[in-house]
Give the backbone structure.
Amino acid sequence: MKTFLLASTILFIAAGSTFAADVVAYEPAAAPAGFVWTGGYVGLHGGYAWLNGVVNVDSDAPFDVEGFDNGVLGVHAGYNWQLNGSFVAGIEADIEHAWTTRDLLFTFNAPDFPPVDIPAEAGTNWQGSARLRAGYAMDRTLLFATGGVAFANAFVKMSEFAYDESKTFIGWTVGAGIEHTFTDNWIGRLEYRYADFGSETFPQGVKIELNEHTVRAGISYKF
């Protein structure tokens, strides 16, 4: 009997040791330390835009039209992938309303008639972009650069002629910014971007080129 009890005890201890070894061997790996930027997000942003136009009328010498400075307010959405430790790649799109409107005065010259000044209104209705992003994460802070395609819808109105024309400009944009996570879901951002919206030709041979500097601040919710 003593021999049987001793043998049973030895077998029990050996089995327990094997089970404990298996638990240690198959224990799940610990989650990586720090905030993980991988995931989708949506958000709101606002800022201030400095919009400039270059106008060329009937192949005359082009002239700059400045002073279309005003606010922008919009929404954005995107997705980030955190790769190889601190490197973060992403995609993002945004669209926003722009209050970049200005009153202008066009002067028309006709043979045998004195010059006539015609009041007009010009500006942009909305603008947006679709971009790639690349950044460096320092735990909850992300430094990033961005670039891609930019869009803007611009208009010219002349009430005296019942003239109201709009065009959608397509160009490019580049910029940089910083983001910081205040919680696991809420992210604040500050960003600067330059956009060259290209050129479009309005009736009567009026060719307009648009470019813009914009500073934006915003907040995003990460899923």
